[in-house]
Amino acid sequence: MYEPIRTKSVHSTVDGPNPDFPHRSREEELDIQLAGHLAALLAVTDELRATQASADLDTAAERLAEQVSRLRGGRTPVRAPISGRRGTGAAALHRRALALAGRTLVVAASRADTAVAILAAERMDAHTAALEPRELASH
Fold first, then answer.
1. What residues have CB less than 8 Å from 11, skipping those under 6 apart?
2. How far apart, in whole angstroms, are the C-alpha atoms of residue 121 and residue 102?
3. For the segment 101-126, what is each residue's pLDDT rounded down to a tens digit?
4. Which residues contact 57 (CB under 8 A, 6 or more apart)?
5. Is residue 39 within 8 Å of 6, Cβ to Cβ?
6. Which residues contact 60 (CB under 8 A, 6 or more apart)?
């Protein structure tokens, strides 16, 4: 009733994995994803530091940079210098940072990286607290 398949599948190989195709473990993939989320959160934190001086933001930026460096094998993340420019509003930056911290927390939890999960949760709390007075005033 059915005709048998006459060609080999492109998805299976007799020789094993293709050496030309990079293979990473799940942990390596999660580390890459986690470092990316942390680097994005660091960039937004640096933008916030440019708009408002805060010891909390300075400390957070240093802690974020340490974790990015750890996940990237000691390579320090590229950072924009603090210029004091006024660009995007602080509320929009806090909302973006809150979303990034949430994504970071999810990946850190699946990676079982407690240090990053704690840092992400702290940043979520800080950005939520920074938004609450603004959000209440606008309604």
1. none
2. 8
3. 999 999 999 999 999 999 999 999 99
4. 45, 48, 49
5. no
6. 45, 119, 122, 123, 126
